[in-house]
Amino acid sequence: MSPSQRPTESNAQDAAATFLGHERFTLTRYPTGFCHYVFEVAPDSGPKVVVRMGHDDTRKNLEGSVFWDRELTSLKLPTARILHHDLAAEFPYTILEHIPGSDLGQLFSSLTPSVRRQIAYSLAEIQSRVATLPRAQGFGYGFSFSDPRLRGSWRAILDEQLDRARQWIRSVGVASESHVERVSRELTKIRGYLDDVAPTPFLHDTTTKNVLVTESGLAGIVDIDDLCFGDPLYVLSLTYMALLSSRSSTDYVDFWSNAWELTSLQRTVMRIYTAIHCVGFIGEVGQRFNKDVVEIDHARLRYLEGILDDLFT
Q1: CB under 8 Å, gap of 24 or more: what pairs does 23-26 form?
Q2: What is the pLDDT of residues 175-230, one digit of tens each?
Q3: Do 212 and 280 belong together in one domain?
Q4: CATH number of the domain where residue 114 is located
Q5: Do 166 and 179 touch, CB atoms closer than 8 A?
Q6: Residue 51 belongs to domain with CATH number
Q7: Strand, coil or helix: 132
Q8: What distance lies between CA 39 and its chain's CA centroid?
Q9: Which residues pair with 30 in a beta bridge?
Q10: Structural contact between residues 214 and 208, judged by C-beta atoms closer than 8 angstroms
Q11: 136 and 56, same structural domain?
Q12: Which is nearest to 102 in space by CA: 211, 25, 13?
């Protein structure tokens, strides 16, 4: 993407000024943000706000964030509410409440088990509330209940995840595609369970990121562009894989599982879902993405392959 197609700090300044009027402010870009350009806006007086700015390729994401902000209002979730938006601008943007806190992954190791339990139970309850929203017209990731990206079955979504992992592994050539086939065979063993999955809504990105916390507990949830429709166990399994990948304690997932009172079958399904994420992580090894130079981290690859083996023992 050429520089002229990307928003600049000046564009973010203009967006903030539109919202704040004559109020003076300082603007700082966050170093994170894979999809959007995110800026913290600190007025001379009054609370901070956040500008999330995109471009033509991410306009749909911001449209989705506005849609879901409205839909989730009645659930009274601790989300960063949208205060203003301009989706028709050259560089579309939203302006949101600022929630003080850090991503769960950043503070995770410093949190006491009791605080991790409190956060896990809060997330479990929040996801249960989200599940009361209407079901979608299909499965997968949606900027609305009728997003054309939705698929006809939950198994189709899982197969797409495996296909992507297979393509990534093949493109780099340092890991074996047999890892993907191994997981696919496990999926076949729970075909009946998968056939019964309904398009239940859940927040798919509330893992160790987008969940803002402090040393005393949950602060809020940010960056909801779309919801996933299918089995809510999928977000729990992704959280599990994220913790395994970072060599962190997994008691947080145990707390969440207990809050949901998972059955033996559900725990088996979650293990297989975790394996899907694991081969996705394996596929990421050696991918260029937005990097100029890529080195193969063989130690990480061996570690991830070890996790996959452990999931099936």
Answers
A1: none
A2: 999 999 999 999 999 999 999 999 999 999 999 999 999 999 999 999 999 999 99
A3: yes
A4: 3.90.1200.10
A5: no
A6: 3.30.200.20
A7: coil
A8: 19
A9: none
A10: no
A11: no
A12: 211
pTM, two decimals, is 0.93
- Provide the β-strand partners of residue 79: 221
Looking at the structure, do residues 24 and 145 belong to the same domain, yes or no? no
Q: How far apart are CA 215 and CA 248, in angstroms?
A: 17
Question: Does one domain contain both 117 and 256?
Answer: yes
Structure tokens at 312: 């099936």
Cβ partners under 8 Å of residue 153, min gap 6: 139, 194, 195
Last residue of a domain, one of 48, 82, 97: 97
Q: Which domain holds residue 76?
A: 3-97
pLDDT digits (tens, 9 = 90+) for 70-127: 999 999 999 999 999 999 999 999 999 999 999 999 999 999 999 999 999 999 999 9
Q: Is residue 49 domain-shared with residue 116, that is, in the same domain?
A: no
Q: Are the C-beta atoms of residues 286 and 299 closer than 8 Å to each other?
A: no
Structural domains of the chain, count: 2
User: For the residues of 196-218, what is the DSSP string, one character each?
Assistant: T---EEE-TT-SSSSEEEETTEE
Q: What is the rounded CA–CA span in Å between residue 312 and residue 272? A: 8
| Core vs surface per residue 238-260: b (16+ CB within 10 A) or e | bbbbbbbbeeeeeebbebbbebb
138 and 255 share a domain?
yes
CA dist 157 and 238 (Å) reads 14
56 and 111 part of one domain: no
Question: Tokens 């060599």 correspond to what residue?
Answer: 247
Of the three residues 72, 97, 122, the one that is the final residue of a domain is: 97
Read off the pLDDT band of 289 (50, 70, 90): low
**177 neighbors 166 (Cβ within 8 angstroms):** yes
DSSP, collapsed to helix, strand or coil, labels residue 219 as strand
- Report the interhelical angle of 233-245 vs 251-260 (nearest 10°): 170
Residue type, 96: L
